[in-house]
Amino acid sequence: MSESQAAAKTAAKAPERPKYAPARGGGPHGPHSSGEKAINFIPSLKRLMAHLSKEVPRIILVVVFVVIGTSANAVGPVILGKATDVIYDASQAGQPVNFDVVGQILLLAAVVYLANSIFQGIAGLLINGIVQRTVYRMRKQIEAKIDKLPLRYFDNQPRGELLSRVTNDVDNISQSLQQTLSQVLSNVFMLVAVIAMMFYVSWLLALVALITIPLAILITTKIGKRSQKLFAAVWKNTGQLNSQVEETYTGHALVKVFGRQQQVAQRFHAKNQQLFEANFGAQFISGIIMPCMFFVGNLNYVAIAVIGGLQVAAGNIGLGSVQAFIQYSRMFTHPITQLASMANLLQSGVASAERVFEVLDSEEEVFDQEGTLPLTATGRVEFEHVSFSYDPLKPLITDLSLVAQPGATVAIVGPTGAGKTTLVNLIMRFYELDAGRITLDGVDISSIPRRALRSHIGMVLQDTWLFGGTIRDNIAYGRVGATEEQILAAAKATYVDRFVRALPDGYDTVINDEASNVSAGEKQLITIARAFIGRPSLLIMDEATSSVDTRTELLLQRAMNKLRADRTSFVIAHRLSTIRDADLILVMENGAIVEQGTHGELLGAKGAYFRLYQSQFSGALTERDLPGAQPGAQPEKP
Fold it and tell me: Is 570 within 8 Å of 541 (Cβ atoms)?
């Protein structure tokens, strides 16, 4: 996961953002609703094949090997028919069989079939490489695309659904291409070669065999259309089920605490049932193809046997030729049956490909400009008439202006949903403004490449994020090429060293998938150390000490003072005791700054900040402290 992804994931705080219903795949590019309509099969198939364009030279080589292999296989029955004719003619003439000739013919047949196996095997190896390289490039495209997607996309996209597209759907594409490419190429050329040899042996029997082709095409087309929308539903329901499992696994402790196991099991059963029904229907309908094709093949076999026998009796064709033709009839129906059965895999693969293409086609972030920051960034931040909303119908921040002087500590307080985290997300350019502009050292941040902008900003968030590596690696994540001395200095300054020394593996302790082998407070300390080592010119702290005990918080305040020295800091706080010494305190309500000043000035004003402070340090809330209270209202008597 890239640094921008990690920051974006961590910055997405639910309380500051309106709750949207999970989009069906992210708006206009979401997956199809179950069973609503068939997927765009032909355009998606063409686009999937276009991904193979870089493998054209190897594909040509595969075609050459397949042609040689299938040609050798197609000649085999004629060679074996010659051996039958030698034996039959000898018996009819009452002469001994020339087994030397028969042996030579059989040896030639063995060589031909061996050549077929060798060339088909080489073609299979080449196809495997073609498919794996194609899927490898597709995964790279998806990873690059995810880095370019705006945070809005992830707001409306269940994580399990997106993960299913990146993993399950891509794996299904790989499997489908692997099987269909080899089967389609070999069976198409086999069909062509067999038809040619059938006409070479007997044009009459060949015409009889060809009658079954229109019937086979009709069966495949009719059944295929029915199964297309079911395969689309299969992979849509797979993504939803994965999302359900991922959500339950992540919150398994809370599920048990609130005794919701039964409800979770019921939801899982419902999703699982939907997937079962879609999968069963898709497999059942597409599975009908094989029995139908076997029936058509058997009709073809009976017709050839009867007509061929009549031709032998009439002396119009040799017994060996009829034997060869019967083999060709089997070889003729086999590729048709295989091609029909490939419709199953191909439809499934194209359904998955379309879901992946929806991600690749999603709208990207606004293109980065080529602006630059001054070489010596001071950290002056200014909001100029900024307006922003997650939903155009529900404005959140309207015409907001403020200035943060270099080196100042700006604290942001206010009730949940007031827009505090949104404010710092806009500084990071996780979202683009609806109106106004934000400048850093006088430069509009929209003119600065995101990577360059964020390299000057350090973030310590309430929602800690650690990746599956060592504690040393997680600290070093904040600075490219960090040395051991720098890692240790950051750890000691933020009191990480204090608990790491007590661990059996020290800094080499590996953080597990859920980071459950360190406490919440220790995770918070590591994220602070990660920001410390980067030495940013602008620091954003979103309730960074919420998960530590009181004693550790006091120690961290000292570390924070060092970290904030000589750099502009934006501190979002709920515990007002942590921001008493801030240079400027902004009080936000409903996306607007309703008060600003120092701690003492705001207490003296006895406004919104005073009420917040009283609610934390003067006992229970009174009616006057609640939103919407009438001026002069008296608290209720106990």
Answer: yes
- The encoded tokens of residue 304 equal 């050839």
Q: In what side-by-side order are the strands of the sheet with 568-572?
A: 457-460, 538-542, 568-572, 409-413, 584-589, 592-597
pLDDT tens across 369-412, in order? Answer: 666 666 566 778 888 998 888 888 888 888 888 888 888 888 88
Rounded distance, CA 626 to CA 460, Å?
30
CA distance 573 to 586: 11
Structure tokens at 546: 């919420």
Q: Which of 408, 443, 413, 414 is nearest to 427 (CA)?
A: 443
- DSSP labels, 68-84: HHHHHHHHHHHHHHHHH
408 in Cβ contact with 431 (< 8 Å):
no
- Which of 73, 82, 65 minimizes the C-alpha distance to 111? 73
pTM of the model: 0.64
What domains can you pick out in the chain, each with its CATH number? 42-360 (1.20.1560.10), 379-456+537-549+566-621 (3.40.50.300), 460-535 (3.40.50.300)
Answer yes or no: are the C-beta atoms of 587 and 593 closer than 8 Å.
Answer: yes
Distance CA 336, CA 179 (A): 15
Name the residue with tokens 């009616």. 623
* Beta bridge mates, 470: 510
Helices (H) and strands (E) in the chain, counts: 22, 10
538-542 and 568-572 as β-strands: parallel, antiparallel, unpaired? parallel
